[in-house]
Records
---
Amino acid sequence: MLIIGCGNRDRGDDAAGMLVAERLRQLGMDVEIRRGEAAELIAAWSGADDVIVVDAVMTGAPPGSVFLWDGQHPPASHSSTASTHGLGLAEAIELARVLGCLPIKLRVYGIEGQRFEIGVEVSPEVKSAVERVVRRIEAEVKPCSLNQVPMNLRA
Amino acid sequence: MSGRGGRTIRVDTLARVEGEGALYIKMAGERVAEVKLKIYEPPRLFEAFLRGRHFSEAPDITARICGICPIAYQMSAVHAIERALGIRVDPAVRLLRRLFYCGEWIESHCLHVYMLHAPDFLGYPDVIAMAQDHRAVVEKALRLKKIGNRIMQLLGGREIHPISVAVGGFYKTPTKHQLRDLVDDLEWALEASLATVRWTAGFQFPDFEQDYEFVALRHPDEYPFNEGRLVSNRNLDIDAAEYEDHFVELQVKHSNALHSVVRGRGSYLVGPLARFNLNFDKLPEVARNAAAEAGLRPPVKNLFRSIVVRAVELVFACAEALRVIREYEPPAAPRVEAPNRTGVGQAITEAPRGILYHRYALDEQGLIVTAKIVPPTSQNLRRIEDDLREYAAQLVAWPIEEATWKCEQAVRSYDPCISCATHFLKVVMEREDTRLGTEAC
């Protein structure tokens, strides 16, 4: 399984995916950290058949809400990623699908952010959501601890 | 949309430019009444972040200003600080820095040429739609971009936010063997870039030439990256230390970004077209020949042709990377010592989008007293508005949707990196700017 955390540490809640990646690394897991630019993501998951991507999203839901999308039914780009780039995660998924290089199994964890200004702190709701996603992914990777993990992902 | 007294082109969110911007053009009858390229990203706080930090932190902090061109920020930072400290780097370090920049140019130009700009010429809304009909082209682009990224990763030390650049050199330098591992990829990339020039040269370009003041670095022996004098086609020929005597940044109401102008003259153009026109004779033969076959002769004054010029610069970057790898001998030490001292240093380097100016003033402990950063996009903003005023005038009879699309294309020709272009302004921000400050993409 390949796990990728995306984001920008300097833009408040946009750091969410990166924070998940760093926490999972602390737990001894092998996780990639990416900016979230489309070509870079396609290169990163090239050849992998089971991929989890974590990124910040803006859907209008309460901050800290966590969404889980199947890569076959990704969110529309205009309402999903908070990437600073013209082509982000949603475009990466669409482009990979057209090019026939979408991983067989791709799941996207989206953490709803509320503030993305340069230099602002990550909001408490997002920090809490980061922990929930970390526990959820840890449970998936280490099935033996599954029973101890709260499965409700909503804030 | 039509309104009383005229028509308005309004693109609330410009797609396929880095960061976010909005474009507002008001036409009154046959006349273009108003052009505003709005920047509503949060202001850049990095100049303030840098104050009080040790100079050794500047490369890492400034690299985070832009995800697409972190190397440019690192290069301008280290060269300015090295100048403030009066230190010279090993010739091998100088070569490695050129290679590092090659990686960034390949990645950035490839992203813009194929993923962001080509869809405009082929009539697609985006690269995803283009990939359905041009799958092999997009696959080639992804491979090319990845090769640029390989160089950046090798020299930068990790996948994002490179950390190996130091004042005085690098924290760690690669072996000859590590660089030679890049050769097969780069030879493929050179061929792919030559094909890119031929491919883009076949596009149809609007008939739109302007009388630009082109501004770029010029070095006596090489196509510019990190060194040279700042020159223009209007007799500018200055050292980086004189930059602020000749260029001034103006605040404009409708934008968070400052607009840069040449004192006494006005807007100017930086980036691939300026570099190409002022340094054509310094391109390697393979790139000059590719340009000639594509029908490009300096001065190229049609900004829409910048996609072909970017492709020529891809050829240059691949050829230059191969040259550096052939000539590279590791330095005796990865970096020279950089002792604390008081000083002021300025540097200009050529980011993919054009010249990037940095100035640092340091105190006796090596702490940054003041920092000034002028990114390429803010230097082009005034010129973009000037172009749009002319270009929109040609489109007054067009249906509004098509005119809007054409104007968006004109802006994209500049490859504006709007997320780099915004500064912290010491003025009261308008409420609308603040409200629109988050990115809702």
Note: Residues 78-85, 145-155 of chain A have pLDDT under 50 and may be disordered.
---
Amino acid sequence: MTHNVYVYILLAAAVSFLIRVLPLTLIRRQITNPFLRSFLYYVPYVTLAVMTFPAIVEAVQVPLAGVAALVVGVVLAWCGAGLFPVAVSCCATVFLIEWLARIL
Amino acid sequence: MPSEHLRRDVLRGVRDGFPIGLGYFAVAFSLGITAKTAGLTPFQGFIASFLNHASAGEYALFTLIAADAAYWELAAVIFITNMRYLLMSAALSQKFAPETAFRHRVLTGFGITDEIFGLGIAYDGWLSPAYLYSAFLLADLCWSCGTATGIAAGNVLPLNVVSALSVAIYGMFLAIIIPPARRDKVVAALVLIAFGCSFAFSVLPLVSGLSGGTRTIILTVALSSAAALLFPVKTEPAEGGAGA
């Protein structure tokens, strides 16, 4: 059986769409259950933290550059820097350290 | 003055969507190289990225196309790799004013990615659909163009530039989770524990064999449940909802 690339693409899109849209459309009101409310309050922070580390170290060529980017990002964000400055500083840190690693 | 609000929200969305778009372009570019090996044309890559906009999910999609996998297999893998969006969608539902129209829920739901979700959570007060639409459209177009360019142009971006740009997304995650961690000690501890557990899960036998998406779900459910049991949040169920 041969498969069609467009069927693959549309099937993946349909599954992703349902996953993304169902909770938002089914949960129409504010949840009052204290456990669920607290659970959903904590979810974003845990999810984003889990996705950040150690992925930031694995995404770059020199692991130390990833560690440095993590430290720079945490310090700047702690001091109140916005999304863009923090993101750019992390990129610059990686670029700089990987450049140093090559010439040293 | 609703139009004034609308204008402000759209502009703010463009401002916050821009850095996401930059990071997306670089990541999507490398994803395009994978898509090319699966035999996709730049147009197919663009469509796939515009509709799916999920890095792990699309990586799975392209490798399964290359492997000529069964359709049901693809559906199952996409479900598992993208299951974290179920949780994000549920969390975002609490950020919408209860009277928000159905179409806005559907369309913002379609736009959920790790980063757009991050923006939604960081937004103060009830979420503005216009804000998320503009941020999402800009970011998703960068994502789709990045994929198409990656397929068409292969290896034109030097490796060190791709490497540097690939951390933009994590920098943004940090900018979202660290300020609340500074205000709330429970969140701060939770972030640290999440870093530690995530690292442990990436090296320990058995669990390290799971996909990144599955590990994210397991840790999110386990750690958020524990925090909710030990430190229930006392906020009123009115303005703001989750996060803020």
Note: Chain A touches chain B through 81 residues (CB under 8 Å).
